[in-house]
Write a structure and sequence with these properties.
Number of helices: 1
Shape: elongated
Strand content: over 45%
Order of helices and strands: EEEH
Distance between the termini: 11 Å
Largest sheet: 3 strands, antiparallel
Radius of gyration: 12 Å
Strand order of the largest sheet: 1-2-3
Length: about 40
């Protein structure tokens, strides 16, 4: 899982991939964290 800083808004986001119950690979993106520590938590 990687945490990255959004250059436009200055907030942090997390992007990760996982395999769902059907065996398909999915990608999830969560945005709007104030700090890198919050994003990785």
């Amino acid at each position: 899982m990687g945490a990255f800083k959004d250059k436009k808004s200055g907030s942090w986001y997390v992007q990760f991939r996982y395999t769902d119950w059907q065996g398909k690979r999915q990608q999830k993106l969560k945005r709007g964290f104030a700090t890198k520590h919050e994003a990785l938590e």
